[in-house]
Design brief:
Chain lengths: 112, 346
């Protein structure tokens, strides 16, 4: 069922920019149009681009947002997983809870 | 006998049937009128019926929204040990399925069950956050019924009500509400500490108005306590059952509320996403079911200030009541909700 919904209507998660739009909806309560515009403006793309994996793969590489990973197309030098969320928080200018926890528990990002 | 061609379509239970365009159109109108009559909502316009007809009379195996009009999928149940460990399931949904967001949960999905394993679930969320990218929420269903005997400590209101012991039943429900709110907040406390992005109250209201009240109360507390934490509030049905009958939120009686008023209360309480539900009638065609669902949810879209993600899974949102819903039916539901209601997600 998920596949059918995904193929019929989804932005596409980390294949494109779906996770970024979802994050603004989930934690900021932004409606779809507002969330797409917010993310697009922060990344210098159009809302249309956000569901295009061709455009967004380059964007994700540029910003270090992490992307589809397998051993056939691995990118060990790029940010992924929790590392990627540090970059997403910075680019979208929103706090991400687990990133803040990571900083607290490791001292990472603490300047004082 | 008509010579009008027949196209394959499905009933609400998923079985194939064949209908003419005229028959599909008639079912669309009947579904819309059923919603209008029951919930006092406006019926769909001729243009909306025609739009749905193009979707549901298409013989195509698969259809989708226009390029650029894609929406967010709030993928509940993505991390519940379907085929590997729960973290591997989350990674599969993220990496292979392109899920827009993820949800960690346990198979039972009931709040009262999760309450006994909060520390384990928090540890799992902590670990999962380290190795995923997409926003990750924790999902439970309040399932207030488990707070009544023999499963829980409260008197069983479902046994008291048929005996006419109304006041005792109401007192038991009110006691259960307070216990559930306490458990929901403790769950949110532990998940926030572990790094969760949001909490999902799924199938809210399955036990009627007391359960909806519990979700609203917990949402308000969480909103005040953790301003950056998302709260998704999804419903169990289109109509809040009056199992108590006198419970209110902000002066509004909860029993009998339809999706628009449910949404207004959810967003007032502080939810960041709302999931209305319209249940499937298995004896009617999908055309009848989608028209009824669209007509019932449409008033939500006109007043929503937060994202609205109608539920479109097994037995709700014109997706057949079948454990593996057919793709031809699922894609039509997704396209119809997106194009007619401009939903924020599903």
């Amino acid at each position: 069922m998920h596949n059918a919904h995904a193929q019929a209507a989804s932005i596409g998660g980390i294949r494109a920019g779906g996770d970024l739009v979802a994050r603004m909806q989930m934690t900021r309560g932004m409606r779809l149009k507002e969330a797409k515009q917010y993310v697009a403006d922060k990344l210098g793309v159009t809302p249309f681009d956000l569901s295009d994996p061709v455009v967004m793969t380059d964007v994700r590489n540029e910003f270090g947002f992490g992307r589809i990973h397998s051993y056939a197309i691995s990118q060990p030098w790029q940010a992924n997983q929790i590392e990627a969320k540090f970059n997403i928080a910075k680019a979208l200018d929103v706090p991400i809870n687990c990133v803040e926890r990571f900083k607290e528990r490791t001292g990472a990002g603490v300047t004082a | 006998m008509t010579t009008e061609p027949r196209v394959p379509t499905r009933m609400g239970d998923g079985t194939f049937t064949e209908m003419t365009r005229s028959e599909i159109r008639a079912d669309l109108i009947a579904g819309s009128e059923a919603a209008a009559k029951r919930a006092k909502v406006p019926p769909l316009t001729d243009g909306e019926i025609d739009h749905l007809l193009e979707i549901y009379a298409s013989p195509a195996r698969f259809i989708g929204v226009d390029v650029g009009e894609e929406i967010v999928l709030s993928c509940d149940g993505t991390g519940m040990k379907t085929h590997a460990t729960r973290i591997q399931d989350l990674q599969s949904y993220e990496q292979w399925m392109g899920a827009d967001l993820l949800e960690l949960c346990v198979g039972d999905y009931s709040l009262k069950v999760v309450r006994t394993i909060l520390a384990y679930e928090a540890q799992y969320m902590h670990d999962a956050q380290l190795c995923t990218i997409a926003p990750l929420q924790y999902g439970v269903m309040p399932n207030l019924g488990l707070y009544s005997k023999p499963d829980g400590p409260c008197e069983n209101w479902n046994e008291l009500l048929p005996l006419g012991r109304i006041e005792e039943a109401r007192a038991a429900e009110e006691e259960a509400v307070e216990m559930a709110v306490s458990d929901m907040v403790k769950l949110a406390d532990s998940q926030w500490e572990a790094g969760a992005d949001a909490i999902d109250w799924d199938t809210t209201g399955a036990s009627g108005d007391p359960e909806f009240l519990a979700a609203l109360k917990a949402t308000r507390i969480i909103r005040d306590k953790y301003p950056d934490m998302g709260v998704q509030l999804g419903m169990a049905g289109e109509f809040v059952l009056g199992m108590h009958g006198e419970l209110e939120w902000g002066g509004k009686r909860l029993a009998g509320l339809w999706p628009k008023d449910q949404l207004l209360l959810a967003q007032e309480a502080g939810a960041t996403m709302f999931g209305p539900v319209v249940n499937v009638n298995t004896g009617k065609s999908l055309a009848w079911n989608i028209a009824r669902a669209i007509a019932l949810i449409k008033p939500c879209m006109e007043v929503a200030e937060i994202p609205v993600h109608p539920n479109a899974g097994m037995g709700v949102g014109a997706v057949p009541m079948f454990v593996h819903p057919p793709a031809d039916a699922v894609c039509r539901s997704a396209k119809a909700f997106t194009e007619l209601l401009h939903v924020d997600g599903l």
